[in-house]
Design brief:
The protein is α/β, with parallel strands linked by helices. It has a single domain, classed as 3-Layer(aba) Sandwich (Arginase, Chain A). The protein contains eleven helices and eight strands. Helix 10 links the parallel strand 7 and strand 8. Helix 3 packs parallel to helix 4, helix 9 packs parallel to helix 10 and helix 10 packs parallel to helix 11. The longest helix has 17 residues. It is globular.
């Protein structure tokens, strides 16, 4: 039986606006723990961290709430390190939560940690390259130690940078900002474009794992819900319409990624339950998650 430790991180401090901090509670209310148990998983609910809700940070306009984002990541790292199940299921929260998941896996001991980043965006912006100051669009720049990243966040962890370029694979990736495209090319980061995933969800996931995960000891899988077309599943914080993947394609690909023997964490981010128009979409999302987590 697979043992899953469920870790809630109700924070939107790295986001563009509040909402994502409500996701862990919404997923539990929709029956995530019970559904996992019914599917034959040993699901251990490790509870939520401190609730942190976004508000404008006028003191750090281009790296909003950088101190709070750092604190959330460090707390998450400690909780992931302490989890001793087969998989740490981290319920965010905005995308900067992944920094804590990565640091937590690395602190467990030796071995290479690799990240498959299932996201329409690479999140490789920096405070000086975009005007909006939302750190959830900059998480991977900070994980990679970009020269333009904020040192408060880059140097917060025992390992700096958290990732080397060959430790990251972008999956379901779109075009992004010019600075991001330049950095991806310069660093040689592997990627599976969103069009390839849409055409063959399971085959593209298998190919990504074959290219990337052969010598990974601990595989982290990150899901930004904005990779799913908002018209198909209206839950994402970034309401991209008629872009991204279908819900079914996303879950099919995740089923392959999470079945990998090295899969050690799965972080879910950017789900805003306030966008659920009639209360049916969070339960639908939970049903898909349970299917992906038990597909092995």
């Amino acid at each position: 039986m697979r043992t899953i430790d469920v870790i809630g991180v109700p924070s939107s401090m790295g986001g563009f606006a509040p909402g994502q901090e409500r996701a862990p509670a919404a997923l539990r209310r929709a029956g995530l723990i019970d559904r996992l148990t019914e599917a034959g998983v040993v699901a251990r609910d490790r509870g939520d961290g401190e609730l942190r809700r976004w508000f404008p940070d006028r003191g750090h306009p281009f790296a909003q709430h950088v101190d709070a984002v750092r604190d959330v990541a460090l707390e998450t790292a400690m909780r992931v390190t302490a989890a001793d199940g087969d998989l740490a299921l981290v319920l965010g929260g905005d995308c900067t939560v992944e920094l804590g998941t990565l640091a937590g896996l690395q602190a467990r001991g030796p071995g290479r940690v690799g990240l498959v980043y299932v996201d329409l965006h690479a999140d490789m912006n920096a405070p000086s390259t975009v005007p909006w100051g939302a750190l959830d669009s900059m998480g991977m720049a900070h994980a990679l130690g970009d020269d333009l990243a904020d040192p408060v966040l880059v140097k917060a962890f025992a390992r700096s940078p958290l990732l080397q370029p060959d430790d990251l694979w972008l999956f379901g990736h779109g075009e992004g900002q010019e600075h991001e495209r330049e950095r991806i090319a310069a660093l040689g980061i592997g990627r599976t474009p969103v069009e390839e995933v849409a055409a063959d969800p399971t085959g593209s996931a298998e190919q990504a794992l074959e290219a990337f995960a052969g010598d990974v000891d601990h595989l982290a899988v990150h899901l930004d819900v904005d990779v799913i077309d908002f018209v198909d599943l209206p839950l994402q914080e970034n309401v991209g319409r008629n872009e991204g993947l279908s819900f079914d394609a996303t879950m099919a690909a995740l089923g392959v990624l999470l079945a990998h023997p090295a899969a050690a964490s799965f972080t879910i981010c950017e789900l805003n339950p306030d966008h659920d128009p009639d209360g049916t979409q969070v339960p639908r999302f939970v049903e898909g998650l349970v299917g992906a987590l038990t597909a092995r």
